[in-house]
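Reopening this ticket.

The earlier resolution said the output was attached, but the attachment link was broken on my side. Pasting everything inline this time so it's all in one place.
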Amino acid sequence: MNPIVPTHRQHGTPSKGNVVSQGGLQAGRRQASRLKSIATTAVLALGGFIATEIVAPAAPKLYPGLAQLDYYLNIGGTAVADLTGNAKYPNHPDLVTFASSAQSQCSYGDNYGLRMRGLFTPGADGDYTFYISGDDNIELWLSTDENPANAVLVAREPEWNDCKQWVLADRRDTVNHTPVNPAQTQLNISVPVSLVGGHSYFFQALLKEGGGGDGVGVNVASATDTPPANGEETRLKAGVLSVLADDAPSVLWGPIAGAKVVQVGAPIALSAGYYVPPDGTPTYQWFENGNPIAGATDAALVKTADLSDDGAKFKVRITANNQSADSAELVISVRGLVESYGFAKFEKFNGISGVNVDALTSSQKYLDNQPDLVQFVPGFEAPVNIDDSFGGRVSGLFLPPVDGDYVFYVSADDHAELWLSTDEDPANVVLLTKEPDWANFREWNTEHGGGAATVKYSDPVTLSKSQRYYLMGLYKEGGGGDNFAATFTLSGDPAPVNGTPSAIVGARILNMIPDPQSTIVITTQPQNTTAVDQRNATFTIAATASNADGPLPVTFQWYRDGNELVGQTGTTLALKGVTLADSGAKFTARVFTLGKTATSSEAVLTVVKDSFPPAVLSVGALNHYISETEQATEITVVFDEPLDEASATTAGNYTLSGGAITGVRYVQNSSGTDGFESGVVITATGLTSGSSYTLGVKGVKDIVGNPITTTVSRSLSLSSLSWVQIGGLTDGTTSATFDVSGNSDFNLVSGGNAFWNTTDDITMVYEAVTGDFDRMARVEHNDPSSNWARSGISARESLNNGGVTSAT
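Inline output:
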């Protein structure tokens, strides 16, 4: 036989313990009395190695025919280390149950860890082989006696297998996985271990489940037994199985509340987790401020809140086997209702499998209106990637900014529905639209991260700005990522761009909530601003909010002369191209947090007549590849404002110290669609790379007629890079490339239809290279002109449309 060698080391001084000999695991003699407690820290010297620490709670009573199962929920990953490295392990399980064999439930859930433990008492002396099977990773530990401190690793499930697949070789080979013992033929089967009949041996199986199938089982066979067959029930059960476990009850966690701040008349819903001894019949009693609550004798508490409950301390007592344990106390606040703008109500219903919304709406929790969690979240969006196997409801009153027809959009993972009432009453909701499968967060127009989508938006709905409308989103998460968001546009407006936040924010969404007693501090007030006619103006605000529980989120809404500026919900209000007619306009911002609203001071915009000529911001030059037989040298000039096109394209308004100017064209959006700058592209001949030139500009006017009266001179040199426009352009668009820093920074203007498969409608700056290369590009801004607008770096075999390319 081969010795059992532990696979882990733990630094420290080895304690005295049983040593694994060449004959296998040596059985210790039965102790004179049962262990009353197990040390919480222990190490075991094993041939120079030290075993991983094994810990267990007090275990004063022997329960024949049972194994103890400790569940640790909401832990990601599939490695056993994800369980043992979690703060819950080992002393804070979420659930403790007992099983009549060493086999757990085979379809319990996802993202959890499980510790199965017990005692194996063989009927006769002999060599015993242990088997494990399950999904995902599992470790099996076996002690030399009853003491968990003397356990060593004897087998493991390195990947996953279905339940009760004791001898299946799949995913258990010793070629692709490191064996526990060199003598193993597959990792889930231990080497034979010599045990003494009638003596008890502690065993422990540690499972880490990620997603999909799950469960763990332990089996055993003596040297004279036939090995277990796949699918066979475990032999580790009554007659050879027992467990040392507490005979006193305890509170594992809680109490927790669906909401710690509750409105008057709403339910106070509290729950807790309990340990119940196998032979115990539990009773429960809830207390408020130390006094028992009449009739509150269930495991959970539901009590209608009134103002006398404000600040009350709640706890629960469990009693079994004439022993009791009390939970910690939880303070609940009860408040009257206040209006809360800018926040939707998010309700989470846990433990519901499947991806269809019907699974949520047919669940008893939903029908009883008993969510596990209630939060108020900024905007009409749910928290992202928070859990698996749950349903969510997002709700509030939608306040239209204007009378008109509205189109609503929904995006979610997994399925979702968006409902709107004809008024404030939830009973009058009608279905607007659905998320039929899954999408990334705020993926309004596509699915599955960019794939074609079925219709995810509503037909136009006529709404009045004087009416409030109950809006509700329902979504069902199965596994993997999760999200929900809804937004709107006015009918006829462009569809929202994927990735843009919901427009149902600020003054667009309202909920009545228990008063959280919040405060808002505006730390930066909008300031009076002076801007030049046809230029941009900006106002900014900053604010914080908090209550007794800590900082709170804030949202904003800007107003002009008391009228809401639809969509202006950021900390900065950017006004593009203000005119003299805007002078004197007054701007304010409302700040929203939970249950509180504040209004900023008033800021006045003053617009002065534009009497300033356009300024030259940058000058550069690079070659334009038109075809294999045609290239052009282009000088690019960026100005700080829109230009009078006639003067901007007059070649006589430019001079060049070398070479000759052959043409000029005007590009209005030289620095992006959101910018105020414009540019000209000057074609020239006679320029050579490496030489310096001087460009003079005079006579160019802005759009109100202010000319450059004194020649503005700028030096330039021809870039070593070139630019090319490949493929076609959308009607009415142009392409150009502006060298804005002399060979390193460029503004690319493009109007292509697609960059997909063999369709290349792109504008690019490039250089030709041979052999290996290393290049880096930084994208500082990309206009959100469409859902498909993109920028990046590309390596191509040629400049031909449809050529082989690799893009990022």
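Reporter confirms the inline version is readable. Residues 1-58 have pLDDT under 50 and may be disordered. Helices lie at 80-84, 357-361, 364-367, 645-648.
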